[in-house]
Every structure is written in structure tokens, then in C-alpha cells.
Amino acid sequence: MSQPPKARLIAIDGGETIDFMFNPNQLSFSRSISLEQSQGARTEQGQSKVSFKHPNPYSLTINNILFDTYETGKSVLTYIDKLKKAVEFSEGGEGDKKRPPIYLFNWHEDYLRCFVKTLSYKLTLFLPDGTPVRATVDLTLEEVDYPVSQPGQGASNPSSSQRQKDTRSARQV
After folding, report:
1. 59-116 per-position pLDDT tens digit
2. Cα maximum dimension of the chain
3. Can you list the pairs that 18-26 forms with residues at least 24 positions away whose Cβ atoms lie under 8 Å?
4. For labelling, which of 38, 56, 101, 129 has a CA lying 20 to 30 Å from the CA of 93?
């Protein structure tokens, strides 16, 4: 019987692929809608008038991701350092704008094209010499859309062709 696939953040643009040591036990998705409530504008029933603006991107929260290097005796910080780089800005993208790396969260299937919005980690086990060998990590990933070409930058259609390219490159990693 083969091992189940490991969850991973596959680097699409910047950063490096991050493999989880153990699969998460829960994925928590959320999304909200932006709206505007006009001060003083009321319906005939006296309720505030609401203008619906747009849906916000999906967020995916993964808590208690375990990294454990106790058996090898090596520092668990090698895994944490990759995650720390995921919340730093990098050069790249259109016009060399500074922005965080873009990933594809994959675990048996492609769930979300995203960036790491928040990272929180705890070092929970140490060797007698102080080397950290176990950590638990909480991540919040936020969905990002596929790039859209700007006028005068060529005619690329980011919709299906970009999605297929991202998915192909993700499967090859």
C-alpha cells in the first residue's frame, strides 16, 4: 500500500517549495463579501441601505502543522526558515514590484493559488544542548488571482492557459 501524498506549498513565483512533514488534520476555509453601508440612507422599513461591492478572496487556515526532527537530531529551524521566507517580500513579478512569493497549496489536489498571509510557530521540544527539534506551525493562506496582462505588455490570456501552466509545473515539482 502506498503512502498518502504529503501536503505542500508549491512555489509558483518566488520562494521555494515547502513540503509538510505530516499532513494537516483540518483545513479551514473562509470568505467574506465587501459591502458599504451609507450613513443616513435608509430603506422604507428604516434599515440601512447596503451596497454590495465584491467577494473577498478565500482564506485557508491550517493549524497545528507538525515538524519533528527529533530522530535525526537536526534543528527543526531548517523547515521554519523556509516558512519565514514565505512571509517576506521578494523582487519579481510585473515591473519588479516587491511582493510575497506565490504558492499553490496542494494535498492530493490543487486547493488554492495563494500567498502566506500569516505565520505563527512554536518550538516545543529541544535536545539537551538546546537544539530545537519539534515545532508546531499555524498558517493562513490567502487566495490570489492569476496575473492579468496590462495594456502594452503583450497579449497573454491568464485564465485557463495560466492555470494549466501552474498546475503542470506544480505536478512536476
Report:
1. 999 999 999 999 999 999 999 999 999 998 866 555 556 889 999 999 989 999 999 9
2. 71
3. 18/79, 18/82, 18/83, 18/86, 18/103, 20/65, 21/66, 21/67, 21/68, 21/79, 22/65, 22/66, 22/67, 22/68, 23/107, 24/62, 24/63, 24/64, 24/65, 24/107, 25/64, 26/62, 26/63
4. 56
Query: What percent of the chain has pLDDT above 70?
Result: 79
Answering whether pTM is above 0.90, one says: no
Determine the residue type at 53: K
First to last CA, the chain: 23
Cell for 95?
515591473
- In eight-state DSSP terms, residue 167 is H
94/150 Cα distance (integer angstroms): 9
All three cell numbers of 31, joined, read 470568505
The pLDDT tens digits of the residues spanning 17-33 come to 999 999 999 999 999 99
C-alpha cell at 143: 487566495
Please say whether the structural domain 8-149+156-172 has been given the CATH code 1.20.58: no
